[in-house]
Amino acid sequence: MDDIQGKHVDLSIDKPDQLYRFAHALASPVRIRIMQALGSRSMNVGELAETLDIPMSTTALAVKTLEEAGIITTETQPGARGAMKLCSRRLDSLSIQLEPEQDESNVLAQTIPLGGYSQAEGIMPTCGLASQGTIIGEMDAPGVFYSPERFQAQLLWFRQGALEYHFTFPHMDQMEIDWLEMSFEACSEAPMYRDPWKSDIAVAINGRRLGVWTCPCDCGGRRGRLTPGWWPALSTQFGFLKTWRVSREGTYLDGVRLSGVTIGDLQLGQEMFIRARIEVPADALNVGGINLFGESFGDYPQAIVVRAGYHLKPNAQQTTKNLE
Question: How far apart are CA 168 and CA 15, in angstroms?
Fold first, then answer.
């Protein structure tokens, strides 16, 4: 569906048709149970029916409804008794905006390469980088994080430490930023992969910590949808797509309020660039490392995506063509 980005969807009362589609699809105990069953792995319709102990016809109809809403995806594959429909979760989260939105912001977006960080601080093994085709440099050597080849990275990992990305938007001095959003795919870092394996992953903007996400595991057990074939099957395969959003009301993680840090607290515009820091702090309760995925590793075809909603300052010249 065109209105779904990554594994999260924002629903609004301003788009009632979209809101009704999702509400209808989820307004069924059977369909909710199917979503729960698909949380751990993909299944075909027969496996779902057996797992939930419901008729095949009921399962097939529920799958069709969820697929039409864009909540799950299906893929037809050959089976022992003809073709079978393999079902996978399309979404992990959704949020609903019940207040009408004020259309006051234009939106800018850009992608930061995984290896495009400006600083790598306190990196501790296990650690390393990989491109789409090979390991970059030496494994468990923190110095490799400053190798020029880091810009080719499609996967990077470390047990403890921080990466700081510096970025800017054109004509930032003429903007008033209303909200800022950053999304990336990540999971914990353990030898090979491990579930459970908690890790506290913090994000900060301009030195102000937005909050901490506790990742439940280092994800494996199946190959990541984009993970190249040369990468070992027993190593980390995929992560969770997480979206951090700072607005005038506070900070939200995947649509759920995380902290009271607002866009005003970030003092955007004080420098020529914005500093975004992704960290596994040394004093965290769960120091379980991090894997960060690029557009050619894991499950999601993206690196680090930043978006900003803005309006022009009252005295700024209209430079819409340059800003878009």
Answer: 31
Taking the CA atoms of 301, 94, 179 and 100 in sequence, report the sign of the dihedral they define. positive
Strand partners, 43: 87
Specify the 3-state DSSP secondary structure of 237.
Answer: coil
Which letter does DSSP use for residue 133 in this model? S
Query: What is the 8-class DSSP label of residue 100?
Result: P
40-84 pLDDT per residue, tens: 889 999 999 999 999 999 999 999 999 988 899 998 877 666 778
- Cβ contact 203:26 at 8 Å: no
Q: Which amino acid is at 262?
A: T
pTM: 0.69
Tokens of 209: 């910590």
Distances (CA, A) of 70 to 9, 65, 292: 10, 9, 26
Give the CB-side neighbour count of residue 191, counting CA atoms within 13 A. Answer: 0
What does residue 64 show for φ and ψ, rounded to 5 degrees? -60, -40
Counts for the chain of helices (H) and strands (E), in that order: 5, 18
Q: Do the beta carbons of residue 150 and residue 119 sit within 8 Å?
A: no
Q: Please give the single-letter amino acid code of residue 323.
A: L
Q: How far apart are the first and last CA of the chain?
A: 24
How do residues 265-302 score in pLDDT, each as one tens digit? 999 978 889 999 999 999 999 999 999 999 999 999 99
Q: What 8-state DSSP symbol labels residue 283? A: T
Contact 71, 35 (CB under 8 A): yes
Count Cα atoms within 13 angstroms, Cβ side, for 20: 4
Answer whether 131's CB lies under 8 Å from 176's CB. no
Specify the amino acid at residue 182: M
Residue 189 Cα to chain centre, angstroms: 16
| DSSP H stretches of helix in the chain | 16-26, 29-37, 45-52, 56-69, 320-323
Rounded Cα distance, 90 and 38, in Å: 10
